[in-house]
Amino acid sequence: MDWLYSLFLEHSALQAVVVLSLICAIGLGLGKVHVAGISLGVTFVFFAGIMAGHFGLSIDPQMLNYAESFGLVIFVYALGLQVGPGFFSSFRKGGVELNLLAIGVVLIGTVMTVAGSYGLGISLPDMVGILCGATTNTPALGAAQQTLKQLGMEANTPALGCAVAYPLGVIGVILGILAIRKMLVRKKDLEVEEKEDTGHKMYIAAFQVHNPAIFNMSIKEIAQLSYPKFVISRLWRDGNVSIPISEKVIKEGDRLLVITSEKSVPALTVLFGEQEHTDWNKEDIDWNAIDSQLISQRIVVTRPELNGKKLGALHLRNHYGINISRVYRSGVQLLATAELTLQLGDRLTVVGEAAAIQNVEKVLGNAVKNLKEPNLVAVFVGIVLGLALGAIPISIPGISTPVKLGLAGGPIIVGILIGTFGPRLHMVTYTTRSANLMLRALGLSLYLACLGLDAGVHFFDTVFRPEGLLWIAVGFALTVIPVLIMGIIAFRWVKVDFGSVAGMLCGSMANPMALTYANDTLPGDHPSVAYATVYPLCMFLRVIIAQVLLMIFLS
Fold first, then answer.
1. Distances from the Cα of 143 to the Cαs of 81, 131, 147, 148, 466, in angstroms?
2. HSE (CB half, 13 Å, CA atoms) of 216?
3. How far apart are the first and last CA of the chain?
4. Are the CB atoms for 82 and 38 separated by under 8 Å?
5. Could you tell me if 447 and 71 are in contact, meaning their C-beta atoms sit under 8 angstroms apart?
6. What is the per-residue pLDDT for 286?
């Protein structure tokens, strides 16, 4: 039995791998269990590690530090790559308003943290840990620990506060959204949101041209008029169907198959003259049977040199006589306008003759196998650049010790920048969604397993002391109070729709479990859109604020 003892209890590299793998496996398995429709997911690894540490399981301290640091770096860098493409664009098209409201949630929690530390006698490191748990934000916890290590202080205490506050942090956001809904939201409001959401979805309509104002005008000239954006997929004239190029002249009686949003249909009816009543949005339509000489095919962009180019710059319609009607990116359907910037992995719906589509296939790539091989060079180069950025000392007036972005701040910033500007610089940074999720889950599981294992030794002693109950109450207040205050302000005074309010609150608290609840109980995709809009900035702010608080008040 000596081999069994050495495998689980005798400190070695092999024992560290076995123990951490066992904790991750148990935690991920239990994380799939739903209670009242809520699960902790990968975060259960944290509590599995706590239980293992409580019962005396441990690994070599250097191995623990390495695995924890490496897991954190992989997680935050992959997270940066994921949120990067939407980080700066989230400040446009109404995103500024949502981000300002989300910043309000972050700032209220920060002020409460400082006030609670002084008013309740809780040390600031403990209070920051409670804040990280209350906001379900493990990257911020990692940043706080790195800062404490820079200051030469005990770095494990925030993990206890985070573990104590985390469970109610998950539930508190849901309770806050429920309270706002019960107090302020009427059934009529949700019905209006559902109707508006339907109007924004991609819609296919057929029109007949009877408006004399556009007779003998080219499609390019018509598109420049002050009307909603649209794409003409097919044109019927004298019984023949064709793919209209931008210079094609529209004549009276032409039938047009147009892709736009449902809310734009009335305006386009005025533009063209008459809408046909055939339903072109049914899922069972055989597009290739509509016209014998034209086929519809989905082609994937896999050529690296197209990464970051605008769709109009390729001139595919005029050169090959085809039309691109829709673009799918990360499960989202986009209108194929000339200004759309292509990214590796985009799926384009191409309509045209078979020979022309084969030529377009060569231009776009369509080598799906290439996308399944992740570009690990970009990942490791990005990690090196992120760690280099995190190691740069930044002097801030009034703070004696220079601030460093550290293992959490540096990689997430570089990840965001590469995810945002990589395609424009023709860098191949594409990773499939499954590959990105794999990187994030692996890194986060390692980090949480080490964190729990280290914190487990003193966890139950802390929870069952009087201050443990105080920490739980403080954590719950840090979750619920900012949510209620900014949720009421957003809905009652700023007049944001409730679906977007719910998504904004979930994103500002980095709480995907609460987002799942919002998506299941509210109509439309407003919660998901708002979550994606505010999540990148709030995640970045919380990572930085956790460090700055400790630097200002402890240095």
1. 18, 13, 6, 9, 28
2. 1
3. 51
4. no
5. yes
6. 56
Nearest one of 175, 167, 38 to 516, comparing CA atoms: 38
Output the pLDDT for position 113.
94
Any idea which of 84-93, 132-141, 149-158, 537-546 has the lowest mean pLDDT? 84-93
Beta carbons within 10 angstroms of residue 167's beta carbon: 17
Residues 254-263: tens digit of each pLDDT = 988 888 877 7
Q: How far is CA 109 from the centre of its chain?
A: 22
**Quick one: tokens of 195?**
């109707």
Is residue 386 within 8 A of residue 417, CB to CB? The reply is no
Say whether pLDDT at 484 is over 90: yes
Range list of H helices, 422-525: 433-463, 466-488, 498-508, 512-521
* Least confident segment among 348-352, 475-479, 483-487: 348-352
Contact in structure between 140 and 408 (CB atoms under 8 Å): yes
Helices in 226-274 by DSSP H: which ranges?
A: 265-272
Give the integer Cα–Cα distance in Å for 555 and 150: 10
Neighbours of 314 (CB within 10 A): 18
Cβ atoms within 10 Å of 489's Cβ, excluding its own: 15
Backbone angles phi, psi at 259, to 5 degrees: -110, 125
Neighbours of 360 (CB within 10 A): 22
Maximum C-alpha span of the chain: 92
User: What pTM value is reported for the model?
Assistant: 0.63
Task: Classify residue 287 by burial, with Cβ atoms within 10 Å: 0-12, 13-18, 19+.
Answer: middle
